[in-house]
Amino acid sequence: MGTSLAVYPFAGLVDKVKEDVPRLLINLTEAGLDMFSLFPYIFNSGLCYQDEDNYRDVFWRGKTDDGAWKLAELLGWKTELEELIKTELRKIDKKEMMDAKSVDCDVATTIV
């Protein structure tokens, strides 16, 4: 998601999955098509979403967040993702409030 697939080690993940595993690239631009020509000793073939005989690779053009939301929706996970995000944001807010209170107490103790 959101990568040029040109920087290793992340780019190497494309060829680390089994042949029967679907691969989805969510990105603003196409990437990862001919990795072998760039790094012949590291990569096997790259993504094949433009090939006629492609059976597992998909390119979704767009912003990463939009693609992730669309995927969650298609898989029936949208509500679960929304709840997960709300829960995690509440945790972050609570931690930030606790950290702010801790800083206030430390400052007050230092002044006294």
Automatic annotation (TrEMBL):
SUPFAM superfamilies: DHS-like NAD/FAD-binding domain (SSF52467). Residues 1-78 form the Deacetylase sirtuin-type domain. Keywords: NAD. InterPro entries: DHS-like_NAD/FAD-binding_dom, Ssirtuin_cat_dom. PROSITE patterns: SIRTUIN. This is Deacetylase sirtuin-type domain-containing protein.
